[in-house]
């Protein structure tokens, strides 16, 4: 693999990425839909005599033609504009989409009747009539459009209610909505019904105030101000755009904090609980885990009601709701379109997961934002779990006080400001001193994932019933209001966490002797209690969001049974929980790839020794090396050097001398032919190179080290014993004196040259190869060098010198090899060469110089 | 000079080599003994760039300390505490901050320098060919150089947080760690071993830079080119990381997980991101290093 290929691959990758990004950015606008604003006039009311104009927007399907339709309903306090973005997205997926402002909201006329069958439901029926006449809408039958309804909160309830009253609706996706509005506003976790429920004061107030003329923005499904502010009448100030009857009901219950049968009747008429067995269409219930207004129990009741009719139901608990959370807009869109694809388009390939729970997946390491994981199960187990496990709780009977006026109150979550505690792990919950009783489990030995509503049985005794008769009598009549919470108490000093900020209010009825018991369903959560943590059940007398008795009182709270029944669902699995497959597969593949790269790149390393040449310092045979352009630097070169010779390697520039020397050193791979030193074939790093001393194409030293350190470290790098180096002799040849202990970067050219020759002679190699050794030396030094080389060879060692100083070669060398354009021109003893040419008669005289011979050989012979 | 030669003459008589030595090597030569690590350490240690880089890494914590002392009180931490707001909480907090500001770039440059320069500088000094002709076998040369370069890199990655820990502890005291975001505290002794994991992870996550620098170093005679190329990778990868449209493809960018070590300092440490980061880093670096070896084996050394 060549590195040169990489930039091309890189540019290709970048180009593809850029193209993909541009396409992705431009794509939606290429097929944008053109929504049409539409006023639809409908008749509703108990006697169908009230005319209301609904402000609607119709989004034709992106693909054109007829398509299934989705009605997108907005949340309380919003208008059709709140769901515009979602509508455009759905239209882009090939649905016709109709959004409208419900009566009493946005520009629609009429008054808010809270999804009443007489008002809002009739409006939707007439919207379906209108849709059935549109040419873009595909029909099941004449007048019966193929239609689904989706919406959150208020819009979710209309989806359920409309499906109950109009069998033309084919599928619904209600989100974060109610099953029983009475139960949602008057919850009672002991199962005694809304008549004994504890008034969800703060949420109810926010809910009803958002029906006013200028709705406040808030988490109720993206409310946006309409911008218009018509002058308000006294009635409007009192009730906003609510139907006066509803307004009266609210004002009564808000005043007393207790539900009346009449109020419950009114609220239930607006709730799916009033239409049992009538919602028979595939229903996907998306409920937020962070929702103290419509907690998971509301979706659970809806799921049971729809499932009882035999219609398909799926439930998802996502990270959102009226108290904030992530909202998971993309995921909800994905699930919604999958549901409609399955049940409107009939795409059976769309998987519909019966139960999904969003769990915390830590943080994205790139963006540092929280990541949601979606655990799925093949069946929806309900609030009380596919299975239960018992956790022992301990704690003595504890007195708790209800403060006079219910203040100060403990805080679990702050309705309408849920976003404040939005990040998981931050708990807003605050307990007031003296108001709560705690019962703890032992530290868990293994993690416990609670999915649903745990239950515990509690016993309450009113204190001081004998003291002030009046209070006591009132307490036994009212019952004892407590707020049950399930805390995650970590080890050490960490503040306990109240999962999702949820509480379960309970009103324990007291028998005449002043005691009472109740089985309390704690808030439904999906929460993992880590090993070492404790489960803590707390009962508190006050909560900011609820209306609590004003009379001061003290109760004894204890557990009637010391166990907490905890629902678990082992079938809930998070896909790809833990390391992805590639975390081990990629490195393993890389190791394999690396092994392949290394093993295939290995040159055959065999000992190639010719014993007959063991005494021949150098034999070159058929050596060939071509440049990349194909021009041959060395072309079929063959010659032999015998022991004791001082061989001059001669040739003009570009003759291939240096290339030949580099091949001798194993730096360059020959294309053909071979070099043998003492019979050993040369390959990169061949051991026989340890008998070769070389100086080729200039010195190579570490400039920051001294000359001495350079030589010492070089010798150490050879790994050979220090006494074999003969440093003293080498340093004497270098002749650097005191300069030896200066950094090499301060040296002159000649000093480096001598140091490099000294380095080549370290260890007194049997074969010494010197490339232009006389460069940069002055005449006396050249003379010394000549003597050194002759003496070196005289003892049976061999020296190869390349030089362009022909006079030097003539005086130093015993033999010469002349090269030209990579080819051997001639080889032999200097004397022979000179003699030959003398007899050849170029100059006629006896004093023929090598220079003449050389020029003759390389120039004239051609 | 001729006297020398008469002196050197005597051993010459004994030297002539006969057959019988396996590879025909000179006396005392063993390929496995060439270029010992200690020699390579010594060759690199006295280089100005080594000393300057370590000087910078050791001085940076003190510069940061001085900066915090100068600016003390002017910053108004509001809302969610960030790592920089908490830097003066104690030695460990300060070390975490110092690491977070230097891990993404400064340490990458240091690692690229040590690994990118190592072979290319030898080539530019021409000393490479003498090492190869010594002969140091090519694989061995690369291996020794890689080990030494990685050791210097590791020293660089370790010395900065270590010095920051020392400086922070001396100036701000030894306190429990306050975690950015929630402001919770984690006991110092709990964090100390995790801090070791963090430093180890930062080192492993720099392997990609090291391996790419090393590959470039083998391929070029220009040390600056090798260092710059590896740093360029960090920059390009960082830019691509900001392109959200790439989705989960970004997980395979070499720098994507470079801040995953922050998860180890949370009250509930999460090692998932770090595991992925290690996987990505090891994957790239193993292949790049293998390419470097393959390339160097086949290369004609002409520098």
From TrEMBL, chain B:
The chain crosses the membrane at residues 51-72, 92-115, 146-175, 195-216, 223-243, 271-293. Residues 1-28 are annotated as: Disordered. Keywords: Membrane, Transmembrane, Transmembrane helix. Pfam families: ABC2_membrane_2. This is ABC transporter permease.
């Amino acid at each position: 693999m060549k590195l040169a290929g990489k930039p091309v691959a890189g540019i290709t990758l970048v180009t593809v990425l850029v193209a993909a990004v541009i396409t992705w950015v431009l794509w939606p606008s290429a097929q944008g839909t053109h929504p049409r604003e539409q006023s639809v006039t409908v008749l509703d009311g108990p006697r169908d005599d009230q005319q209301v104009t609904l402000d609607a927007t119709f989004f034709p399907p992106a693909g054109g033609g007829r398509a299934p339709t989705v009605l997108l309903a907005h949340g309380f306090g919003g208008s059709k504009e709140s769901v515009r973005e979602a509508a455009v997205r759905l239209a882009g997926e090939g649905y016709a989409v109709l959004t409208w402002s419900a009566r009493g909201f946005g520009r629609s006329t009429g008054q808010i009747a809270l999804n009443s069958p007489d008002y809002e439901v009739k409006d939707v029926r007439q919207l379906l009539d209108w849709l059935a006449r549109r040419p873009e809408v595909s029909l099941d039958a004449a007048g019966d459009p193929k239609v689904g309804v989706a919406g959150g909160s208020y819009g979710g309830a209309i989806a359920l209610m409309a499906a109950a009253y109009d069998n033309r609706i084919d599928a619904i996706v209600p989100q974060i909505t109610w099953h029983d509005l009475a139960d949602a506003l008057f919850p009672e976790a002991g199962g005694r019904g809304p008549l004994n429920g504890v008034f969800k004061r703060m949420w109810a107030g926010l809910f009803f105030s958002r029906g006013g003329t200028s709705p406040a923005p808030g988490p109720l499904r993206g409310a946006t101000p309409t911008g218009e502010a018509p002058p308000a009448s006294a009635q409007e100030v009192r009730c906003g755009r609510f139907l006066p009857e509803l307004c009266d009901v609210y004002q009564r219950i808000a005043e007393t904090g207790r539900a009346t049968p009449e109020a419950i009747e009114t609220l239930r008429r607006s709730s799916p609980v009033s239409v049992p067995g009538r919602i028979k269409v595939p229903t996907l219930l998306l409920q937020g885990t962070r929702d103290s207004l419509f907690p998971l129990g509301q979706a659970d009741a809806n799921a049971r009601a729809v499932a009882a009719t035999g219609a398909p139901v799926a439930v998802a608990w996502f990270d959102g709701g009226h108290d904030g959370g992530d909202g998971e807009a993309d995921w909800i869109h994905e699930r919604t379109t999958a549901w409609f694809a399955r049940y409107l388009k009939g795409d059976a390939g769309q998987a519909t997961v019966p139960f999904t729970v969003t769990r915390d997946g830590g943080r994205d390491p790139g963006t540092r934002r929280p990541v949601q994981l979606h655990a799925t199960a093949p069946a929806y187990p309900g609030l009380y779990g596919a299975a239960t496990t018992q956790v022992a709780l301990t704690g003595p009977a504890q007195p708790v006080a209800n403060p006079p006026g219910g203040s100060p109150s403990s805080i679990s979550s702050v309705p309408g400001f849920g976003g404040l505690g939005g990040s998981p792990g931050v708990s807003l919950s605050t307990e007031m001193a003296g108001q709560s009783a705690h019962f703890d489990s032992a530290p868990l030995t293994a993690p416990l994932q609670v999915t649903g509503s745990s239950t515990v049985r509690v016993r309450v005794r009113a204190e001081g019933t004998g003291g002030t008769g009046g209070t006591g009598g009132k307490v036994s009549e009212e019952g004892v209001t407590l707020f049950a919470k399930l805390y995650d108490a970590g080890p050490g000093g960490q503040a306990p966490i109240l999962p999702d900020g949820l509480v379960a209010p309970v009103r324990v009825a007291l028998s005449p002797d002043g005691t009472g018991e109740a089985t309390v369903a704690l808030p439904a959560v999906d929460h993992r209690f880590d090993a070492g943590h404790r489960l803590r059940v707390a009962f508190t007398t006050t909560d900011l969001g609820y209306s609590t008795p004003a009379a001061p009182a003290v109760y004894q709270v204890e557990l009637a049974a010391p166990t907490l029944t905890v629902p678990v669902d082992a079938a809930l699995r998070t896909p790809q929980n833990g390391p992805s497959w590639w975390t081990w597969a990629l490195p393993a593949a890389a190791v394999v790839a690396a092994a392949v790269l290394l093993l295939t790149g290995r040159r055959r390393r065999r000992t190639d020794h010719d014993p007959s040449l063991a005494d021949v310092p150098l034999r070159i045979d058929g050596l060939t090396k071509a440049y990349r352009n194909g021009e041959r630097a060395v072309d079929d070169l063959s010659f032999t050097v015998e022991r004791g010779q001082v061989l001059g390697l001669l040739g003009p520039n570009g003759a291939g001398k240096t290339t030949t020397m580099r091949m001798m050193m194993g730096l360059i791979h020959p294309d053909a032919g071979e070099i043998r030193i003492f019979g050993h074939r040369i390959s990169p790093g061949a051991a026989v190179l340890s008998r070769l001393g070389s100086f080729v194409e200039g010195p190579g030293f570490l400039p920051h080290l001294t000359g001495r350190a350079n030589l010492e470290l070089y010798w150490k790098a050879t790994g050979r014993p220090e006494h074999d180096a003969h440093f003293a002799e080498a340093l004497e040849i270098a002749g650097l004196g005191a300069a030896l202990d200066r950094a090499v970067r301060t040296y002159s050219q000649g000093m480096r040259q001598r140091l490099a020759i000294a380095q080549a002679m370290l260890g007194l190699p049997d074969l010494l190869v010197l490339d232009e050794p006389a460069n940069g030396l002055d005449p006396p030094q050249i003379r010394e060098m000549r003597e050194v080389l002759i003496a070196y060879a005289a003892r049976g060692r061999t020296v190869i010198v390349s030089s362009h100083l022909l006079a030097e070669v003539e005086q130093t060398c015993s033999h010469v090899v002349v090269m030209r354009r990579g080819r051997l021109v001639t080889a032999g003893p200097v004397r022979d060469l000179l003699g030959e040419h003398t007899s050849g008669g170029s100059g006629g005289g006896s004093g023929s110089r090598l220079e003449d011979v050389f020029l003759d050989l390389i120039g004239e012979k051609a | 000079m001729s006297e020398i030669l008469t002196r050197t003459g005597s051993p010459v008589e004994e030297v002539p080599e006969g057959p019988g030595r396996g590879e025909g090597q000179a006396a005392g030569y063993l390929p496995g003994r060439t270029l010992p690590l200690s020699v390579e350490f010594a060759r690199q240690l006295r280089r100005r760039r080594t000393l300057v880089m370590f000087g910078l890494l050791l001085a940076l914590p003190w510069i940061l300390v001085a900066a915090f002392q100068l600016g003390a009180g002017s910053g108004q931490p509001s809302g969610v505490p960030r790592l920089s707001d908490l830097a003066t909480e104690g030695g460990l907090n300060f070390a975490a901050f110092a690491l977070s500001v230097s891990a993404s770039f400064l340490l990458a440059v240091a690692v690229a320098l040590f690994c990118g320069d190592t072979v290319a500088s030898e080539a530019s000094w021409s000393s490479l060919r003498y090492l190869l002709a010594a002969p140091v076998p090519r694989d061995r040369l690369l291996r020794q150089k890689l080990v030494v370069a990685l050791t210097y890199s590791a020293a660089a990655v370790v010395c900065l947080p270590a010095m920051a820990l020392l400086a922070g502890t001396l100036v701000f005291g030894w306190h429990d760690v306050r975690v950015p975001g929630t402001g919770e505290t984690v006991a110092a002794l709990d964090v100390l071993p995790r801090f070791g994991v963090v430093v180890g992870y930062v080192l492993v996550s720099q392997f990609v830079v090291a391996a790419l620098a090393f590959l470039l170093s083998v391929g070029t005679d220009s040390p600056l080119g090798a260092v710059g190329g590896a740093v360029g990778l960090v920059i390009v990868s960082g830019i691509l990381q900001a392109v959200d449209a790439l989705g989960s493809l970004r997980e395979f960018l070499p720098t994507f997980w470079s801040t995953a070590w922050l998860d180890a300092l949370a009250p509930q440490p999460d090692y998932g991101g770090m595991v992925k980061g290690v996987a990505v880093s090891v994957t790239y670096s193993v292949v790049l290093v293998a390419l470097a070896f393959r390339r160097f084996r086949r290369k004609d050394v002409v520098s």
